[in-house]
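Hey, I was hoping to borrow your eyes for a little while. There's a protein on my desk that I can't quite get my head around. The fold is given in discrete form, as structure tokens running alongside the sequence. I'd be grateful if you could look everything over and explain what you see. Here's the protein in full, and shout if anything looks odd to you:
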Amino acid sequence: MDVSLDDRQEGDRTIVVVGGEIDVYTAPKLREKLIDLVSAGHYHLVVDMEAVEFLDSTGLGVLVGGLKRVRAHEGSLRLVCTQDRILKIFRITGLTKVFPIHASVDEAVAATPDSA
């Protein structure tokens, strides 16, 4: 399985739609996408993970790296995820305390930058 990546603007937020598997083989594509967006001045990112079927520790590392990148520019990185099997990974690793996780893209876009 491969990963699909797409992005679009919604106001001052950049929505990154991720599908497929984020693992040791595909995570570098997501890393490059996040680096390119931040380099282009997109500091408020919403990563839509509704179509993600698998996420491993490499993928988690890429998301944490993306968060560090946007925070260096006073930005934010929010996740959209309602799948229990993916949310469980964030709960087990304690990353639910690090990432604001929303039920929809609209909810993530409407959230103020400093609210979780």
